[in-house]
Structures are given as structure tokens and as C-alpha cells.
Amino acid sequence: MKKVPLIIVADDGAIVDVAYANNKAAAKSIECGEIWYCHAETERVLPWRGGVVFEKYERRDSDSLGSWYMARVERALAEATGGATGGGTDATAGVSVRPAGRGQTGATSATVHQAAGDAEAALANAGEILAGLQATIKARREELPEGSYTTHLFSKGAEKIRKKTGEEAVELILARNAAELRSEAADLLYHLMVLLEVEDDSIGSVLAALRDRF
Hints:
single chain; two-stranded antiparallel sheet; globular; Helix Hairpins; alpha+beta; Ubiquitin-like (UB roll); 4-stranded mixed sheet; 2 domains
């Protein structure tokens, strides 16, 4: 199925945002219980505003308008994750990942230097970043808060987490440019850390193995 409109409405009927969805985005939304959409330019499937739990999600069809999806969310959730109207798809996508040559001239020198500086700063704090993420994942496993994607993964069990980690590895291989590569690598690392946690292990042991090799 090609991309079709995804209309997100609040529980009072007001339109919150309009995005796109395809079969993969719809299936992932229903599986996770939260809204995923299809990026209009890259066609990557991403969580809308970081992953907002919906009250109702359905496909609608009409002779005059064709097919579309409708997702209903609590207004409080919509406002807490990006404002009452608009901005959802842009905020979730983070940055444009259009390849240069498709209506984009490429990054400026200042942008490149800023990105390099951010990467160096993150590398310097890698231990803190990974430890913080590990602690969050561990807490999700212990508390299982409702509406959390990590909770959803733990509720499905180790085999489902292994499968998802494998899917993320494939998506990394299929990344088409540097921005997609970074994003997919981050997704893979997150799922790997969830897999390690469900197996009562941690990213620390992986880092120790790397240290011993080099």
C-alpha cells in the first residue's frame, strides 16, 4: 500500500496533525499501541512525536477520497508532546535527511562543524550516555509503565526482542545516507541494550569485551 494520509485528532474531535502512513506504519502502530507515521520524503517509519499512545486507530475508505488512517489521542498527550496543532511530523523526524540533489544543496560549513562538535561532545560523554540509557531500560523492565515502547518490548519476551533487534540490523544495512545511518545505528543500539537487559546482561559487558580485544 502506498502512503496515504494519517489524520491525528484529539478526543474532542479537533485535528491535531496530518501526516502519512503506509502498511508498515499502520502495522507498527497497532502492534505498539502508539502512533507511527511514514516520513513523506524518506519513507522511513518513525514514532509520531516520540510515540504517543492512541485511543483509537482505524483505516477509513470512501469512494470520493480514497483511503486514509485516523488516530484519536488524548488532547493532553498531544499538547505535552509538541503543542495542540501541527509540528508533529517535523518534531519527530528531528532533521531532514533528504539526500543532496533532491531539492537540497547540502549542509553548510557551519552546520558540518556543529555536527562534528556535537559528535565529539557525545563521544566524550559516551559512558554517561550509555549508563543513563541502561538505567532507563532497566527501570522500564522493573516498573513496566503503561504506554512505553520499552514496556511493550519486555511484555513480548526475549524472542520478540531478538527479532526486533534483527530487523533493526537490516534497516541499518539498508540506510541510504549518513543521516539515516546514524538514526538506524541508534535504533539498533537501543534494541541491543533492551536485548541484553532481558538476558540479564548489559552494555558494560560488551564494552569490556571490546576493551579486551584491543
